Amino acid sequence: QVTLRESGPALVKPTQTLTLTCTFSGFSLSTSGMCVSWIRQPPGKALEWLARIDWDDDEFYDTSLRTRLTISKDTSKNQVALTMTNMDPVDTATYYCARAVGGYAYYIDVWGKGTTVTVSS
Amino acid sequence: EIVLTQSPGTLPLSPGERATLACRASQSFGGSYLAWYQQKPGQAPRLLMYGSSSRATGIPDRFSGSGSGTDFTLTISRLEPEDFAVYYCQQYGRSPYTFGQGTKLEIK
What is residue B101's DSSP assignment? Predict the structure, then answer.
């Protein structure tokens, strides 16, 4: 059974750096074809894809947030981290991590429950 | 960046009716690398379809997907009460792997 769980601070101040951790089980990020993505959803709004890291260390980022995001993995701990710098109130959202699988292109098949992050002074 | 436009924004229908949801891409993203997700209030999204027309594990066959290139459709043949939710499409053919803005399927 594949599960993912997001963890991190519920409240951050403007200009601070946010670090979220995704801890997963039921698969390994050292296995060919496995990837982990981060997606967020502001309250009442649509899903927004943020970043993805692949089994072969390839990294992909949202264009507009690229300069603020870093995704990394610790295969031995079954964890993926996302850091977002210079947080702003507009970054208030539920942040999801999710597994992506496939052969040539990779679709999200399992989601974590999400963690809510509020940016406020 | 590929922009996905979903229509309609809101779709009021009754149980038993047929639902047709559209997702149009601003440009082709190679192949049929499009997925559909269902999201209910307070829950994480759930994968319905991938590869435009392949149903995910456990998804009832009243859900079907079609399309290629820039135009895609999710069809629910006969709506059940549990199908009323928000539906998102996502392209995973070209980074950044963008989502549409969603279609809310509501009870008429």
Answer: -
